[in-house]
Q: What sequence folds into this?
């Protein structure tokens, strides 16, 4: 239902009041704890993204603009630039490997896990401004949570055709969320926040046809940057509509054809999205729709000690929305492989793991990988379809040379609220990302504890300083890190490959 209302009774006005009035003390302790996991996850992913090909491209672009001498850090580099550019670069970095967190849907007409990647726009935008202004950890936490909450509730409310017809919701809803977070951090009044949202509504853009290319993470970077731009111009006095969300020519109508008012009105922080339905943290750098199947496949491989040469065929069945998102059935690049159920199953059968070092162009094109992908059949399963789109139900059937057929079903993957990662497990993922980017342990380890106790931090520059290279450090000018070798001692993260998967996100899917 779309209701156009003006004045303080408008939907945009309600969202603006939430932005302007929310403080750290208003956020439940358990929600703060959940947010810390996503923040630590995002920082590690920004480090990993800094050695992606896209990271080098972005740094060269910023250097060509001559935008140095700023006060916000481009994570993984020596660059310090104005906040909008740091938000842009770090947003791309967080989303570069499609390894970042995913909002889970409430509505049964929406694919579970197919709304937005909430941290990629909300964290880089608020972190950049917080660093520039020397703000506290509590200030950053409040702004980040406001940004995520607004982004997720807007994504939940907009007509699903927004995504189905080609908009990338991390790019679009993420711009509004990033703007909300920065507006909160800057202490905007409700009227200023409404203007900020009005500007952000016109900046929101990004189409899914670009999935599988470097443009997908570029979308996240632009959303983060757009949030900073919207807030800065609103503070300077630029005018914009005060009813950008609900207006007949506003965001919901133009971008989605309508919206469900009941999904957002009176729902901001009631409950917080982090609490219900939750946010999923990825155990693999691929589209979240692959994760239930990957979690169960790995369990089956270990339980039955399945060897690659035993596999005759693999059948994977899901609801119809999942093949519509996981569109690359015979990928030839790592970007495509991130949205290929066939690759994700094949690499687990061959390597018994699917991490950053497996998602490279070289690995995707190995003859054994291509051959194993041809054994995987991916399509719609009637029981998965009947289970509803608000689940990621996945059926697996593995036929082996000895005549056995091993079957199982998964509804949720590791990292989902139903099977969550602990803070320490997320810390291990952060360490993987840091090692992948060759980040010094002496700088990486303190980040884990600073984020764990982020509310006690008096100045976030202490945190960002640990994520910035010292001047003169090798690799700081945006050169790609050395190629990974496949002969790595067990338990040690290999050095990063030069990744054309860089800007790396993939085909259609997770916002």
A:
């Amino acid at each position: 239902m779309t209701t156009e209302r003006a004045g303080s009774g408008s939907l945009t006005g309600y969202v603006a009041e939430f932005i302007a009035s929310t403080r750290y003390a208003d956020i439940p302790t358990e929600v703060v704890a959940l947010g810390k996991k996503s923040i630590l996850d995002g920082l590690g992913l920004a480090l990993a993204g800094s050695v992606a090909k896209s990271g080098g491209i972005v740094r060269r672009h910023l250097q060509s603009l001559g935008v140095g001498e700023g006060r916000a850090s481009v994570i993984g580099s020596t660059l310090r630039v104005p906040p909008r550019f740091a938000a842009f670069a770090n947003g791309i970095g967080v989303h570069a490997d499609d390894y970042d967190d995913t909002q889970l849907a409430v509505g049964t007409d929406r694919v579970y896990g197919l709304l937005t990647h909430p941290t990629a726009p909300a964290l880089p935008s608020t972190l950049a401004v917080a660093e520039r202004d020397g703000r506290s950890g509590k200030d950053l936490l409040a702004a980040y949570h406001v940004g995520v909450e607004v982004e997720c509730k807007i994504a939940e409310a907009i007509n699903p055709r927004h995504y189905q017809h080609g908009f990338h919701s991390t790019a679009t809803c993420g711009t509004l969320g990033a703007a909300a977070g920065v507006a909160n951090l800057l202490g905007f009044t409700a009227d200023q926040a409404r203007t900020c949202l009005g500007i952000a509504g016109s900046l929101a853009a990004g189409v899914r046809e670009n999935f599988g290319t470097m443009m997908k993470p570029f979308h996240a970077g632009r959303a983060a940057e757009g949030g900073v731009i919207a807030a800065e111009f609103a503070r300077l006095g630029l005018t914009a509509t005060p009813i950008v969300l609900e207006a007949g020519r506003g965001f919901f109508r133009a971008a989605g054809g309508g919206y469900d008012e009941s999904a957002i009105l009176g729902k901001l922080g009631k409950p917080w999205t982090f609490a219900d339905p939750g946010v999923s943290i990825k155990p693999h750098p691929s589209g979240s729709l692959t994760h239930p199947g990957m979690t169960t496949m790995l369990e089956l491989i270990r339980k039955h000690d399945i060897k690659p040469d035993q596999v005759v065929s693999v059948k994977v069945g899901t609801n119809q929305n999942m093949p519509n998102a996981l569109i690359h059935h015979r990928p030839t690049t790592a970007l495509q492989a991130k949205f290929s159920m066939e690759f994700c199953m094949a690499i687990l059968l061959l390597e018994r793991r699917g991490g950053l070092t497996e998602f490279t162009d070289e690995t995707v094109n190995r003859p054994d990988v291509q051959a194993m992908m041809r054994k995987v059949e991916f399509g719609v399963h009637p029981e998965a379809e009947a289970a509803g789109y608000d689940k990621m139900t996945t059926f697996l059937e593995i036929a082996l040379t000895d005549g056995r057929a091993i079957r199982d079903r998964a509804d949720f993957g590791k990292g989902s609220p139903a099977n969550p990662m602990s803070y320490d497990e997320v810390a291990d993922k952060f360490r993987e990302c840091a090692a992948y980017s060759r980040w010094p342990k002496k700088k990486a380890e303190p980040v884990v504890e600073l984020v764990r106790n982020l509310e006690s931090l008096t100045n976030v520059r202490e945190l960002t300083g640990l994520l910035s290279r010292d001047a003169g450090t090798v690799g700081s000018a945006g050169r790609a890190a050395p190629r990974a070798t496949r002969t790595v001692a067990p338990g040690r993260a290999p050095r990063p490959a030069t990744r054309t998967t860089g800007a790396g996100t993939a085909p259609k899917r997770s916002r």
